[in-house]
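User: Here's a structure from my thesis project, written as structure tokens. My advisor, Dr. K., wants to see whether a designed sequence matches the one we expressed. Can you design one independently, without my sequence as a hint?
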């Protein structure tokens, strides 16, 4: 599909925020969902938070099917290159992050792994999303490249350093040849995402009250792990 399942969007973007890339490659960009999200949330000038001199991230798309072109491409991407990623990627230089979102299942298993290795030679991290296991799909929108040719699971990425997260009917995995920063893994942990959901849905005074209620338990955990402070302190944000 030229767009990803809504269930994966927050997981993908939590990884993107954690990494803070300045040059992003979106392989198989489709209608431009992830390019648009990256432009909104990585580009301070676009959101109005930065001035004219604020450095802007560079976001490049690659798409094999030119008929997916639409106005979002012009808004989100610095450039969209039409062609097969296998042929195009070597001409584009290096990147801080590559997005390979709902693309790898459209390749054979061998071709998908070769593309992943090629992308890792251009970027320290590749963010992959895919249906979990077998999900049949034929050509769509007169695009033969929309066929699903392979099924992927966590085991297929065992040769790499990964941070793996599942969502309904799919998964998102950050793939690297080097260990991933702990902060990136922690920011996408299910408990971290649950806390974000609580903060977004509960009134601020109630969130502060819950923090104050849980503070003694956090202190006990620090004592148990040898990380307690020398003097008891009330949490700075206990009043919300």
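Assistant: Designed independently from the structure alone:
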């Amino acid at each position: 599909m030229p767009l990803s399942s809504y269930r994966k969007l927050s997981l993908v973007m939590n990884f993107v925020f954690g990494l803070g890339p300045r040059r992003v490659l979106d392989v198989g960009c489709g209608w431009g969902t992830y390019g648009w999200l990256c432009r909104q949330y990585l580009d301070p000038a676009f959101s109005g938070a930065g001035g004219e001199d604020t450095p802007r991230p560079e976001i490049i798309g690659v798409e094999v099917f030119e008929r997916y072109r639409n106005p979002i491409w012009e808004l989100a991407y610095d450039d969209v290159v039409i062609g097969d990623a296998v042929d195009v990627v070597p001409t584009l230089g290096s990147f801080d992050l590559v997005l390979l979102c709902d693309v790898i299942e459209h390749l054979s298993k061998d071709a998908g792994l070769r593309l992943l290795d090629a992308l890792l030679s251009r970027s320290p991290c590749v963010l992959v999303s895919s249906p979990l296991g077998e999900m049949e799909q034929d050509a769509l929108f007169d695009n033969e490249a929309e066929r699903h040719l392979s099924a992927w699971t966590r085991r297929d990425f065992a040769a790499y350093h990964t941070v793996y997260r599942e969502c309904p009917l799919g998964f998102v995995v950050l793939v690297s040849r080097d260990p991933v920063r702990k902060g990136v893994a922690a920011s996408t942990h299910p408990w971290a995402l649950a806390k974000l959901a609580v903060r977004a849905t509960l009134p601020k005074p109630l969130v502060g009250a819950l923090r104050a209620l849980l503070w003694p338990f956090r202190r006990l955990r620090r004592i148990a792990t040898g990380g307690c402070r020398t003097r008891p302190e009330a949490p700075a944000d206990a009043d919300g």
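When you compare it with your expressed construct, this may help: The longest helix spans residues 204-224.
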